[in-house]
Structure prediction request, 463 residues.
Amino acid sequence: MIKEKIKHTAKHYPKNHLIIAGVCTAVLGVSMLVLPSQEASAKRTVLELQAPLKPNEAAEIISQISTESKTQATQSEPSTADALIGEPEEFPNEHWETLTVKRGDTLSHIFKRAGLGAGDVHRFITSSKEAKALTNLKPGENIHFDIESGELKRLKREISNIESTLFSIDETNNKFVAEHQIKTLQPFTTYTQGTIESSLFLSAQKAGLSQKTTMELAQIFGWDVDFVLDIRKGDKFSLIYEELYLDGEKVRDGEILAAQFINRGKTHTAIRYEKADGSSEFFAPNGDSMRKAFLRSPVDFARISSHFNLRRKHPVLHTIRAHKGTDYAAPRGTPIKATGNGKVHYVGRKGGYGKTIILKHGERFQTLYAHMNSYAKGMRRGKSVNQGQVIGYVGSTGMSTGPHLHYEFYENGRVRNPVTVKLPTAKPIHKSEKAEFLAHAEKIQAQFYAYASSFEQTLASAE
Prediction:
């Protein structure tokens, strides 16, 4: 009976999805059982496998959380917010004509090839702002015309293979009304893991992850792991995430549902959970927020060129002068992010620091960003900024030997080492939701364990 379920379930998965996952009969059996239930998918939950379950324990929990994969795969709503707005209407074959935009084409050229005149073009583009925007055409786009008795009734612009805009004539005012359409993308759950040899990006690429998913993985653990300073060869990552398909073909990666990062032997785990207010956040297995009040680094994947050292010899002055922060070497123009929510306290030139921004984060904390090439638009004293917001760009202004960011961190007026300072955490999951979260997390633990075990078995059988 189980074998029949496996064969039946396999028919609902895209062929290349099965190939990438390295699915064999055993893997399909486990995958069918551990696909997130409708509840699990809605909660976006992940859990750490700190204490691996025994096979009989895993089977017992899996049996409790097992759901109909076929139903979930064919009836569940897409997990990505923009996955579905409205299904495009089928074209009546007797009226529609499709034309492809060529290099140098204007809307007038396209209308003329469709048998329409200048008056039709003017009538269309003056109907609405959306219609006027159609004048910005790109070579390769398809434009569909529905023309009856020489009169344009509908026009459809294909923006991509899943996104389009349909313009239909409103007979009451003789204007074209725009309807934005996005086709349904079907989510399929995927598990992958990798070991870092040289960099997270290369290892993630080898594991089949897109750049977008890799960046999200780094952001999830970015409060605990400095992906410049802390990464070591042999560090491991694993995650359960969604792949979004259209007509059996993968379109893009979806959300990360489960993630784990082992850095220097220490395991970090995030659990994605949709809270009562509808927002999603990553939590540790005990319900603590994965977020910290501050990011560990203000520049993504930059190299630390100089550490915090109160007895350092200055590279320009050649005297013993305290280096009160950390220098991140990066190409000129690299975005600099605010490490925490706060307000701009100072923006401008500041002696040897060159172009500088100082942020205040309440009464207790302050951060400084120096040697900037330029400031982000709108930076001014008193402006509120959010954690991760770009506030400026790497440069070498002031007393600097080359492009880099100098970053300082202050607590109660005292300078602290930004690399090692213990960062305050954000609020944990609300006590009213904690019981539900922990119960849900226990179910996901079994899912995560089953995927990981199947993956290892597949690799072993392939050797």
Summary: Residues 96-182 form a domain with the Nuclear Transport Factor 2; Chain: A, fold (CATH 3.10.450.350). The first helix runs from residue 2 to 10. Residues 58 and 446 are 6 Å apart (CA to CA). The two ends are 29 Å apart (CA to CA).
